[in-house]
Automatic annotation (TrEMBL):
Transmembrane stretches, start-end: 51-71, 77-98
Keyword vocabulary terms for this entry: Membrane, Transmembrane, Transmembrane helix
Keyword field contains Transmembrane: yes
Name assigned to this protein: Uncharacterized protein
Domain of life: Eukaryota
Amino acid sequence: MAGEDRSRWVKRGQPVDSDGARGCFELAIRIIQYPRTRPCRQSTSTRTMGIVSYTLTWGAIGFGIRCYQLGIMRRPIFTNLWGHGISVAFFGSLGYYFHGLKIRQRELLEQKRQELAQFQEAQKIRLDLRNQKFQELLH
């Protein structure tokens, strides 16, 4: 078996002489080429509430930071309100960006999980084929 030429039954990962094994490889290729449909997305009301909560939370953080900044400088907190507005708008836009970032990361993770599951299925099929060929060589 050590000096045996394996090219007669395996060529670039695909079996040559076994129809059953070829069918398994075609199934694995089909699984890889045509992934399952993606799960349904969040409803728009849930997504909108997420955007609102992120934006308001980060806006409140910006307001608090501006008040803290003025407190450190020992200035009156509510004299120049335009500074508070700029701080709230800036941090609110950060919250909006972070919400979109979270959604993109979740979609990417879900896609990677699906790809990993497909790869694991294909690996199981390949391992079964190798075991089958090994058993055929022994008999």
